[in-house]
Specification:
By secondary structure, this protein is α+β, with helices and mostly antiparallel strands. It has 3 domains: 176 residues, no CATH class; 115 residues, no CATH class; 92 residues, no CATH class. Helix content is 52%, strand content 14%. The strands form 4 sheets. Strands 5, 6, 7, 8, 9 and 10 form a 6-stranded antiparallel β-sheet that branches. Strands 1-4 form a two-stranded parallel sheet. Strands 2-3 form a two-stranded antiparallel sheet. α2 packs antiparallel against α3, α3 crosses α4 and α13 packs antiparallel against α14. The chain is globular. It starts with 8 loop residues before the first helix and ends in a 7-residue tail after the last helix.
């Protein structure tokens, strides 16, 4: 699963693996649409390349909705999407002046235009929510690859009895869960020498009878808020920190409380899992095999320990996969080591300018005298006292500074070379950026890679 954003190949490879495993082993492959995530990652990255500079342009698919869940985003008209298209095309058009990449950029514009057209067709058919539009456009592309995964939004998953039971179990044991959660995070920070308590995730707050649980809660159309449980006698109250949203009863059965949660959801109140609880539920109760990307797999080592401590079982395993596929743009074939070597030379020129002087400069009397004086001072420093050493050191610095003015042409040439290499390396970073969306890649390139990537498995 992943957020319903503009996928890059490293994300999309998970969909291909799920399809491949089902074809090999049987079963049903499901792409879990993480529509409960905040809409702050829907950026379209675009390469902007010129002869003298390069950068990665960014265009937001949705603006000013950073704290709103993706499932809440609905387009009243198609104008914002057309504006998004125009902004992306404008950025791509900046590359057309480069004759050597003109054809490649034009291909990108065609691919992107087709992607937007798919969104437009879906909109014309009555779909106006962001999740549905982006998913339909991606699914249309996946059909060309034979992918037949089912699509299940997290918001749908949260409207199942299984999820309600999972939520209730954590609510009943919220204090124990929060303590285990915080202890394991502390251990993780200690092992990885992380000082900030905000990383990799913030602790759950425990303030008397107010206990934070790792879920989001919000009212339909509103912003996501943290979810808390309040203990008061036989009551379990769920709050967003401002209002009491529902009251559950400890002395009643799970089915009665489950019914209360369902009624709450019907009023437009939404409770959704956060990162840890989402993958926890998905791995334990939703799937037989869960496929992670690199980032999710890294943090699910924390989930593993929480599952062991809280549920008392060995956590189900998961598969990790990622991929890097660059756009068909040539780079300069340079390594950072080239720059590092030039920088070392530049530093040495400042401390030992006599090594880099031209033959003409070396024959100048003033330069020769300075070299001789420096050599003499270096020789006697070893047998000098502390005060003399400080005085000689200051004089050597003065001599280096004077000699540096005499090799100024060589120094300028070297620094110009350094700036040129820096520019080329920056260009390489833009060309080798791995998060450009799949809607910029030529279909043939994607097929050549993705239809053969598992052939050796």
């Amino acid at each position: 699963g992943h957020e319903p954003i503009l996928y890059h190949p490293g994300i999309w490879i998970k969909n291909h693996l799920a399809h491949y495993l089902v074809k090999k082993l049987g079963g049903i492959s499901v792409n879990m649409i993480v529509d409960n995530d905040a809409c702050n990652m829907g950026l379209m990255y675009v390469p902007i390349l010129s002869k003298i500079s390069a950068s990665v342009g960014k265009v937001a698919f949705v603006k000013n909705k950073d704290h709103v869940a993706c499932e809440e985003i609905v387009f009243d008209d198609f104008e914002p999407i057309l504006q998004f298209k125009e902004e992306v095309i404008d950025l791509l058009s900046k590359n057309i002046l480069r004759e050597d990449i003109k054809t490649t950029i034009e291909d990108m514009q065609v691919m992107f235009g087709q992607f937007i057209n798919r969104i437009g067709e879906c909109y014309q058919q009555g779909c106006s929510d962001m999740v549905g539009l982006l998913t339909a456009a991606r699914r249309s592309l996946e059909e060309d690859f034979g992918i037949e995964n089912l699509e299940v939004p997290v918001s749908w998953m949260c409207d199942t009895d299984g999820f309600y039971h999972f939520l209730l179990h954590i609510l009943y044991e919220s204090e124990r869960f929060a303590k285990i959660y915080n202890e394991i995070l502390a251990e993780y920070r200690g092992i990885h020498k992380i000082r900030s308590k905000a990383n990799p995730l913030p602790d759950l707050k425990i303030m008397g009878n107010l206990i934070e649980i790792p879920f989001w809660v919000w009212k339909a159309g509103g912003q996501r808020a943290k979810c808390y449980r309040v203990n008061e006698g036989e009551d379990i109250k769920i709050t967003d920190g401002a209002d009491i949203l529902v009251i559950l009863k400890k002395n009643e059965g799970a089915m009665e409380n489950l019914s209360r949660l369902k009624v709450l959801m019907e009023t437009g109140i939404k409770i959704r899992p956060r990162a840890i609880t989402m993958t926890m539920f998905s791995r334990m109760f939703f799937s037989d095999v869960f496929i992670h990307g690199m980032g999710g797999a890294k943090y699910d080592t924390i989930t593993d320990e929480i599952i062991k401590e809280f549920f008392g079982i060995d956590p189900p395993g998961f598969v990790t996969i990622s991929a890097t596929l660059f756009l068909p743009l040539d780079d300069y074939g340079l390594d950072i080591k080239v720059l590092q070597e030039l920088q070392r030379t530049d530093s040495d020129m400042c401390y030992n300018p006599e090594r880099y002087a031209s033959k003409e400069t070396q024959s100048e009397p003033a330069f020769m005298n300075r070299v001789k004086e420096k050599q003499r001072l270096l020789k006697i420093m070893g047998v000098s006292n502390a005060d003399e050493k400080r005085r000689y050191f200051r004089r050597i610095k003065e001599l280096n500074k004077l000699m540096l003015t005499q090799i100024n042409p060589e120094l300028k040439k070297k620094r110009k070379e350094i700036n040129t290499i820096r520019g080329k390396l920056a260009y390489n970073e833009v060309v080798r950026f791995r998060e450009y969306p799949i809607c910029l890649y030529p279909t043939k390139m994607l097929k050549d890679y993705l239809l053969n990537v598992f052939s050796r498995v």
